[in-house]
Each structure stands twice: as C-alpha cells, then as structure tokens.
Amino acid sequence: MKLSPQEIETQALNPETLQLALQCMKVNGYVVFEEVLPKDLVAGLHQEFMQVFEEHRARTDSNRGNNRYQMHLPFRDPFNHEAVITNPLALAVIDEMLGQDAVCHYFASDTPLPGSDYQKVHSDIHLLFPETSLALPAYSIVVNIPLVDFREDNGPVEIWPGGTHLMPGAMNIQELAPLMHSETVLMPAGSLLIRDMRMWHRGTPNRSDEARPNMALIYSRHWLKTHYPSIAISAGAYEGLSERGKRLFRFEKIT
Ligand SMILES: O=C(O)CCC(=O)C(=O)O
Q1: Burial letters 28-63, b for 16+ CB under 10 A, else e
Q2: Are 178 and 200 in contact (CB under 8 A)?
Q3: For residue range 221-236, what is the model confidence (pLDDT) as tens digits?
C-alpha cells in the first residue's frame, strides 16, 4: 500500500487505511507499507549492516542455503532506532492483531548474496493445534525492512498469500505450493512488509551483483514459546528505550 504523504509525515495511519491493512492481514496474510522509513535512516542502516555482515561472513558459513545468510543483529544504534523497533505504522497493525501486550523476541536479518538459490517453500512458525482443523487468529507477526530495493533480479521474497496463513493441520507444502498462486514482493528500501508468520514463502535467487539485506523483527503474543535465542540487550540500551520499547523487549536477556 502507498500511504498518503500526511500518513508518512505523521507516522499515523488514517482509520480507513488501518482497517484496510487489517483486512489485508486477515485475508492475504500480509500487508506492505511502501517506503515509509526516512531515507537517511535507511541509508545509515544499510551502511552499518554491510559492515556487521561482512565481519560475520568472514567468520561464519552461510546457514540458509548457498550464499544465503540469516544473521542476528546487535541491539544497538542504528539497528534499534525507535522508528525500527517501535514503528508506529507497524505497531498499529500489531496492536490490533496481537494485542498491546505483545513482545518482540527476534531481531535479525536475511541476506541472499549473488549465487543464492531458491529456498524450499516454508512457514516460519509451528501451528498451535496441528491436530485440529481450526484456522486460528494471528499469534506471531514478522516485520521485514528491506535495506535495498527488492527487485525481480536481486532475490525478492516470494509469498503465497490468500490463505496459507490459515491452513489448518499438516499440509504437503512442497506439492501444493507449485499449484497455488504466489507473488514476489517487490518494494523500495525502507518499506515495511508485515506478514503473518504462518504464511508460506521462500527466498529466491539473487541474480544481481550485490547483497540484498532484509531486517526481520518478530512480534508475538506474550505467551508464545519459540526456539529463538533471547536478544542480548545491555542494561544501558534497555534503559534508553521508550516505555513502549521496554514493554516490547521485556522478556529478553537484559544484562
Ligand atoms: O529472503 C528473505 O528475506 C527471507 C528468507 C527466509 O524466508 C528464510 O531464510 O527463512
């Protein structure tokens, strides 16, 4: 969705936009707010990311297939800027979908490099009651922030909207996905891709000559237990957060 200049300037959704975004989340499993973060913030995030990423790459093998890296992010400036972690446009959706006592428990990134391949189509979260045929409300949402434009040639995320987030029980994803509608999410740097963690998706090959970094923050209902390691947050960084930030990261490892 393209927001109005006023919505971007005030970082507040009109009531009609919020309702439309919520309907997109419920029906399609995702919504995109295009190019809503300040350009200078995104440029700073990209520059700092590439430095941290190159250091990580020098000491670590790729962990999401050939030339594709998942990397946790340090909880520090500029990554933990309030426009990133407590973004009002994303939180407007998250508050309605998960409730105001949701937590943020994952602070990381995905980066396909030139030479990466298709991933298997997958969902990012377990079903709560796989033995039933019930489609449940959302309980976990990922906010992706592209740090470069996502184009056809540089490995955009491919998604299966329109119901895969509501699939009850175990499905044969690999057999079903090729028979279903999918889309690549093309969006400018600094957009917000807000998606239900259950929605099927995959990384696609990066055929350009540059890395394609994507920040990933996961927000969940406070009772959800996952296998992700705690986010390491220094006491100083935690104290520097807004009240909302403190509440969102209250279950993480504050040292
Ligand atoms: O390409 C991306 O940003 C998403 C990658 C992904 O879905 C994964 O590694 O699980």
Answers
A1: bbbbbbebbbeeeebebbbebbbebbeeebeeeebe
A2: no
A3: 999 999 999 999 999 9
Distance CA 214, CA 143 (A): 10
Nearest to 76 by CA among 113, 51, 110: 51
Between the CA of 158 and the centroid of ligand 1 the distance, in Å, is 9
170, pLDDT greater than 90: no
pLDDT of 162 > 90? The answer is no
Q: Which amino acid is at 176?
A: L
- Ligand 1 binding pocket includes 70 (Cβ within 6 Å): yes
Residue having the nearest C-alpha atom to atom 4 of ligand 1:
203
* 72, two tokens: 């946790």
Q: Is 201 in the pocket of ligand 1 (CB under 6 A)?
A: yes
113 alpha carbon – ligand 1 mean position (Å): 12
Task: Provide the CATH number for the domain formed by 5-254 in this structure.
Answer: 2.60.120.620
